[in-house]
Structure formats: structure tokens, C-alpha cells
Amino acid sequence: MLFNSYIFLFVFLPIVLLGFHQLQKVGIKAALLFLVFSSLVFYGYWNPNNLILISFSIICNYFLGHFLQRNRKSKTLLFISIGMNLSCIFYYKYIGLFSDFLELVSDYSLSKDEIILPLAISFFTFQQIAYLVDSYQGKIKKGTFLEYALFVTFFPQLIAGPIVHYSEVINQFKSFKDRISWTNTFIALGVFSIGLFKKCVIADNLSGIVEIGFKGIELGQTTHFIQSWLSMLAYTLQIYFDFSGYSDMAIGIGVAFGIQLPFNFNSPYKSKNIIEFWRRWHMTLSRFLRDYLYIPLGGSRKGEFRRNVNLMATMILGGLWHGAGLSFIVWGGLHGAYLIVNHQWAKYGFVIPRALSALFTLFCVAIAWVFFRAPSLEVALDFLSSLFHFTPKDFTYTLDHSLIFIGLVGAVVFPNVIELFFTKNKNFQYLLESEKKEKAAYCILYSLMIGLALATSIYFLNKPGEFLYFNF
Fold first, then answer.
1. Of 113-122, 392-401, 425-434, which range is least confident?
2. Bigger pLDDT: 300 or 312?
3. Are 419 and 253 in contact (CB under 8 A)?
């Protein structure tokens, strides 16, 4: 079930919101149970068979976490617990890559044709690995099974994040009353509408420009270099508006239920360097990689050389998390190299104007996205070659290309939902709760903007497109 579908917007979400708000008046357990059940219905809508895997994962990890909380000195149990989770990801996501390697070095091969990747396995597995490590480190205490089940399955963030820490939501599950208000409902609608607009109006309509460039290279066609540049820029914007749109919708739905999920995007294309980019892009994955991979590897504590090795290893594994293929490894390796160069640049104190630095950072990010989008390493390299291969083939500018300019302005100029709704300055929430004279005028303005965004998005719902990160 997609957020950007009629059945979700006009059937599932209204029923779940209405049922939840009524049941939380009866009792917290009834509300939690209803949310868990609704989330499992949401997840099982794609493939009911996946419910077996996620249910087994939840039960096993809940009790493993309980044992780790009671036996915090047992590293063996921690490694076994993490290994069990990683083995599931390996089987479903990487068995094909492993089989290809076996065929390359020997005559043996593994059957992989009937393996179907379960939806969101990377997200809910990483979330539970963090729970296990935090349990071992004594950062959390045992909660009820119902609370843990909701922590894993809460449908706004289940499919594509944000990756949530147990400690961030467990206290919110114990009481909803203080966080359910007309103000928060209005904010939830605003954040969700902006996210839906990003996905339906911008990201989905950029897909055609992306497809022309990458599909043409894949089919061996000669692509005009301007078309290649526009396709690269279009994908750079498509993946941002697609994924940040999903995250905005997830946060908005969470607020409607009185639950504040962590932010995942903070205008990453405004970053002045790659270090800042990874603090703003997919923030919960960056946090996970830092806390549970980079720092355990030694971080920057063991010298500059070791830091660089740790950065490269972390980013390559981050690339592999997204997909089993050489192009994802190259994508991660590129970002690892970017980070190493960035650290060296900062070490020697080189300074360039912020605008120029931000433009160069965006260019480097866009180049790396080519490997992320291309179906193979060969296609990626051919695409990069086409960017600098001046061909006599005609290029025709269409109205669709103007969406690239609109997307760039939206990504690098406009404020994001954090700035609009959640900072402590004069934002939407401040105005709603204040007694200022301008309150009414601003509320009317925001209402018109939100209404226009929502109406336009619904107009484009005829052909709802899946979110790009569903594949990861």
C-alpha cells in the first residue's frame, strides 16, 4: 500500500486514525494493539507471506534483547544476535551477488531465481540491530512486547524509514494525550501535504527525463550530451524529492498519532561540503553507520590513516546496504573518497566561497548518483562518458525540462519542513500557538498553500509510482 494511493489516503488512513483516536480514550494497550494490527495489515498488503518473516524477526529480537539486557557481558550472544539478523539480509539481498562470485571462481552456483526480496527488510533489520546493541550497552530497559512490536512495525516508518531508535519512541508509546491536539493535527496535514507534493508532482514527473537518458545509454543509443546532463540532474532531484517526500509523509502521519519520528532530511543540497551533506542526507542511516559501524571500527581515534580506512569501509558497506552490485560499491567508495578529501582539505585550512563550495559539492553528489541509478557499472561509465561527448545529434527542449529548474530552486532555496514546522523560531507551529496579530493572516496563507499542495498532489494520483527506496 503506497502513501500516494487512493486506498491509503481515503480508506486505510482515515479508518486507522479514527479507530486509534477512539481507542486511546479507552486505554493505551487497546490503542497500541490496534496500531500494531493496522501496521501489519499495511505491510501485508503487498505480500501476506512477508508477515511470517517480520513476525519471526520481531519475536526473536525481542527476547534476544531481553537476554542481552540481563547478560550485558555476553559479547557472544550479541554477535550471534547480530549475525542472525545479517544472515537474513544476506540470504534475501546478497545471495545473488555471492552466487555470481562462486560461478566466477568455480563451477558451483546457487539457485536464486525464486528468492523474492521482502519489502523493507534492510530498514526493520537495521532498526532491530540498533535495539540489540543498545540493549547490550545498557542504554534501554525492557518494555512490553506490544511496545516493541509497534516500535518495529509502526507503518509510517516501516517501509523506508526513518530508522528509529527504541529510546526515541518508547516513552511516546506510553501516553498520547499530551501530543494530540488541533495544532499538531494541522501541522501533520501540512507536513504530509508537502511530502505528497514532492513525490507526486516533482519526483514522479522527473522520472521520464531520467529514463530517456539512462535507458538510451543502456540500449546503446547515442545520447546528446545536454540530455545526459539533464537526466543526471533530474535523477539527482528525483531521488531527493522521492525519498524526502516519503520521510515528510512519515513524520506527518506520526504527528497525527502523537508520535514524533526523527528527521531524515535537512536540505542536503544546500551543503557546503560532503561532510555536511552526510549530516543532512538520510540522517538516520548516517547516524546508524556512524554509531554502529564507523565508531566501533575505531572512528578517528587511531590516527589519520586509520580514520580514512574506517571512512572508506563504512561508506562501501553503506553502498552495499543499498544494493548488491558493483555500481553500489563504487557509489559508496566515491563518497568515501569524497569524505577523505574533504577531511584533508579542512586539515590544511583551504577556504573557498560557500556558493562555489555548495555548487561543487552538488556536482560531486550528482556524479555519484549516476552509479546509484545505472543498472550496471558498464552503463554508468558509458553515461559518464556521454556527459563530455559532444554529439551532433539534435536536442529538443520541452516543457518537462523546466521541472528541473523548479526542483533545483525548491531543493536549494526554499525552507524545508523542519524549518517551517519544527524549529523554535517564527514558524507555523509558533504562529498557531501564539497570540500575535499576524497569526490569522499567516494561518490563512499556510492553509491556502497546504490546500493547493494537497489538491495538486491528488490530481497526479492517477498513476501512483512506487518510492525509489522500496528497492533498498
1. 425-434
2. 312
3. no
The alpha carbon of residue 460 and the mean position of all alpha carbons in its chain are separated, in whole angstroms, by 22
31 three-state secondary structure: helix
Note if 322 is an active site residue: yes
Are 134 and 234 members of one domain? no
**What are 60-118's pLDDT values in tens digits?**
999 999 999 888 778 899 999 999 999 998 888 887 666 666 565 666 665 555 677 78
Q: What is the DSSP string of 230-269?
A: HHHHHHHHHHHHHHHHHHHHHHHHHHHTT--PPP--S-GG
Which 8-state DSSP code applies to residue 72?
Answer: T
Burial group, residue 15, by CB count within 10 angstroms (0-12, 13-18, 19+): exposed
Q: How many CA atoms lie within 13 A of 348 on its CB side?
A: 7
C-alpha radius of gyration, the chain, whole number = 23
Check whether residue 224 and residue 152 sit in a common domain.
Answer: no
Domain region containing 198: 182-471
Global pTM value: 0.90
Residue 1 forms part of a structural domain: no
Residue 234 lies in a domain: yes
Say yes or no: 186 and 170 in one domain. no
Q: How far apart are CA 374 and CA 380, in angstroms?
A: 5
Residues 367 and 467 in one domain: yes
The gap from C-alpha 442 to its chain's centroid, in whole angstroms, comes to 31
The residue from 282, 322, 335, 389 that is catalytic is 322
Q: Report residue 191 as a C-alpha cell.
A: 507536513
Indicate the residue among 156, 174, 192 that finishes a domain: 174
Tally of domains within the chain: 2
pLDDT (0 to 100) of residue 98: 64
